[in-house]
Amino acid sequence: MTDLAARLSAIDAQIADAARAAGRDAGEITRIVVTKFHPAQLVRELHALGVRDVGENRQQELTAKHGEAELDGLRWHFIGQAQTNKAGAIRRSADAVHSVDRIKLADALHRAAEDGGVLDVLVQVNLTEDLGRGGAAPGEAEQLAEHILALPSLRLRGVMGVAPLDEDPASAFARLRGVADAIRRVEPDATWISAGMTGDFAEAIAAGATHLRIGSAITGPRPDRG
Questions:
Q1: What is the pLDDT of residues 153-184, one digit of tens each?
Q2: Stated pTM of the model
Q3: CATH class given for the domain over 3-219
Q4: Cβ neighbour number for residue 18 with a 10 Å cutoff
Q5: CA 9 to chain centroid
Q6: Domain locations in the chain?
Q7: Which of 14, 66, 89, 224 has its CA at a distance of 20 to 30 angstroms from the CA of residue 104?
């Protein structure tokens, strides 16, 4: 077994353990491998190991790797902050955008639609007190969701959030779950909760996360970009 395969297997075992502890079926949880700063070759290796969901934080990397690693059944998740002028490039490469945090971005992604395609999107919720952080304020997320529902080229899938570093992740994810429940009352099919990274995915699973974003615990240390 390669180091990559061993790390992937170890994380999947931990996900299964956390799901059992929460009384959930691990089969309903999607593990997204974040390949930030790693080459497209790593994506090909992950695909050979059965990975079908990968995530990128930066549009340039998403575009480049998508072009180099067009593999059967591979789904690309854009999870970083998005500029409206990059909406077209993101849409051409992403199968899902987790970080829709404002109406202008939703509109830009909608305008970039081509060939009648539909893009899966999530409302990113800011779980911190810092208004400068990415994400819609919890009290504004439902309004953003309703706006997305009026854009026919976007499919509202649910919510995404990142737990603050200075707070117990369980309480942060409980707030995210509350926002998710409110949005599901507006759109019952918006069932995704994208939450949880290497250090807090057990708490995210306990709060109902359906999509986990795991990076270096699987991929190994990120390459030196210097």
A1: 999 999 999 999 999 999 999 999 999 999 99
A2: 0.96
A3: alpha beta
A4: 21
A5: 20
A6: 3-219
A7: 66
